[in-house]
Amino acid sequence: MGAEWRRRVLVVEDQGALRMLVCDLLERHGFQTAAAADAAEATRLFTEFDPDALLTDIDLGSRPSGAELAAMLVELAPHIAVVFLSSYPRAAAGATAMGIEQAVFVAKQDLDSPTALLSALERALSTHPTPLPPSAETGDPLGSLTRHQLEILAMIARGWSNERIAVETGGTVRAVERSISRLFGRLEVTRDPTVNARVAAAGLYLAAFGPAR
Description:
Blueprint (H helix, E strand, L loop, with lengths): L7 E5 L3 H13 L3 E5 L2 H11 L3 E4 L9 H11 L4 E6 L3 H4 L10 E4 L6 H13 L20 H11 L4 H8 L3 H15 L9 H13 L4
Parallel strand pairs: 1-2, 1-3, 3-4, 4-5
Helix pairs in contact: 6-9, 7-8
């Protein structure tokens, strides 16, 4: 299962050649990517792709800008990591990159090696921890979950619907559905078609933490 799991990055860049190069670099280093040329296309991809990180230019040649896109996606999915790859000078982005807490800023003119971009992405992801693939050596099925996934699992254990979870997390129902699907996959509760995955996942949470409050 570990070999199949890859972190997902939504790459938004209006320059086609650079967009392809970035996606190729990330794919070669173990990431799964989806690419968009503008914010509108990125928004459409977002609910389908359910990314762990957004890597975007700030000036996309049209509105919304990359900064506006990032602000919107962070509202929908607070767990998403953000990297700005831009021609803007670093000072112009502000002390908090474009007003996005924990976002990482990389100036295109300062990007002297692929390693620098990969390092920036890893740095952003480290502020929104995404666990390593589940290991056969660990007996704790919940140990592979992110904090965001544990929060969703707690809501499932309370018996909440996807609609209510979406309201509580500030996301969309589609985003919640994608998150739950990935959560169930990580817990391996979908392997047996005779078992209700939602009940099985809630049972794991209750066994570990007791009744959800």
